[in-house]
Amino acid sequence: MRRARQIKDHAAEAALFRRRALAGFLCALAGLGGLAGWYFRLQVLRHDEFATRSEANRLRLVPVAPARGLIYDRKGRILADNVAAWRLEAVPERAGDGAALLARLQGVIALDADQQAQFLREYKAARPFKPVTIKLRVPDEEAARFAVDRWRFPGVELVPYLGRVYPYGDLFAHVVGYVGRIDDKDLAALGDAGGAYTHTGKTGLERYYEAQLRGRPGYRRLETNVAGRTVRALDTVPAVPGTDLRLSIDAVLQQAMVDAFGPLEGSGVAMDPRTGEILAMVSLPSFDANLFVNGISHADFKALNDNPSRPQFNRVVLGGVAPGSTIKPLTALAGLDSGLRQPGDRVLSTGVFRLPGMRGRGWLDGVHGWTDARKSIYESVNTYYYQLALDLGVQRYDEYMAKYGFGQKTGIDLAGEIAGIVPSPASKMKYAGQRWYPGDLVNSSIGQGLWKVTPLQLVRGVAAIADDGQLRRPHLVVEQRAGFDAPWKALPQPPPARISEHPGHVQVIQEGMEMTTSGSGTAARVFRGSPYRSAGKTGTAQVVNRGATAVDPRSLPLWKRHRALYIGYAPAEAPAIAVAVAVEGGGFGSDTAAPIVRKVFDAWLLGKVASAPPAELPAAARPDFSDVRGTPGAAPVASAPVQVAR
User: Fold this and answer.
1) Nearest-CA neighbor of 116 among 94, 95, 100?
2) Contact 642, 252 (CB under 8 A)
3) Helix (H, G, I), strand (E, B), or coil: what is residue 73?
């Protein structure tokens, strides 16, 4: 039977086609709409973002490091200079594997084991696009050799920069300090600007004035091709150089103080009592600051660390010592100002002192007979101070010592200064874990026991006596300028504090100290024949019991020898310089410390310099400032260059 013939429904097919066409049209329309919206988003809504990305692919910003500020002494001699140098850098994402790169560089650039290890360590931790230093201070010969083979090392560049150099080597290592290679901690502190710097101040003035010395970075905008090579330089924003500093220190006097120490170790500070300006500051032994600029070698660092004399230790701001008898002038002033003593009051020195109810030999001293305030200073009579301290009491004694600047920082512009220790029941319990006894105050009265003072505190105290009771802030930087053509501007200093409201009492102390250098004074032999009058006080900080005083100190091991101290100022009638010296293992102040101070006075007031200066100073073509504040007018110091000799 024939199947029934099907009849097409053309109307339904047409309707179905129209529906499908409409759906396709709507889908196409939606797709075009989405594409248009996407383009709108890219071209309009996010135009700035993608334009910036496009520019970043075409342009490269290269930071321009500023020239670090220079540091001058008071006569314009450069103590910290900048020299043109090359450094070799590699960008990890372009230079490839670090170890393979070093292998290819062999024969072109000389790299020791320390440099290779440091590069690989930094290279692994660095961001792919951040340049990593392979070698600082590339010699000209190596730089020329690399330039010839530059095509072999993609991503490696020779970058010109200004390197730090210290022309005087070890002479100012503890004052100026040094810069070192920047580390992750420094980069975090600097933020976005950190990429422009390779070095930062690590110690001394380089560290204290880092923010002023480093300047502000600039940048160069370079156009690059698809391979990352520079096509042209578009524009440059110049870097702002760091601030130059002018110090109060005189390089000639600094060298004279080093020469005066000779082979001895210790520290010394010279200050202008009228202004608080530091004229010289030495800590011996010292070290060559240039060793640290580009990373010190393991051998050099080990040699410094293994040296038992600790050359890196700044004894001036960190080296606390017992003041010995150098504290006596200020203790005598406390007795006068407290009203417990009058200038003419006398105490009988019989050679021994005992506390009430004490049995045994007590505290021994020489027989000085009847002693007043002046004689107690120039003959250094212990007995006078034993009873005075007991009459004052420990609380009042400590209050006067704090008024004279002890137990607190002087505020000098160097980082890391210690406050020292003034003996008290609290400090003895804190540092020794022991209770306080009346005998502790007896020891403290002559600068023994738990005392810890710095040479800076001592020179500040003696300068206050020289300046009729004005306690000033010691400082190193006197002026700064924001560019070579800019004028020098003085740094303001805080007003001085008065240590005594009785000028007559201060005069008594001055007279006692003047008599120390004449007649029967403990330093009379050292200053005999001096063409100027001076004032001072000898001191001996004992580190062994009194039985050792009959032994030649130099026959004892260094750690058993007494520390020799001397404080003084000159000329006595118009003080222009105050000095404090501490000699480690020096024995007695009158034997070793006082002669050092005499030589420093002679150098400053008479122009006597122990070592002959060379004909030409490194980087000698510098301005010589003649209008330096505080220079003794009657006998200025010679402004000749200084020979760094150790």
Assistant:
1) 100
2) yes
3) coil
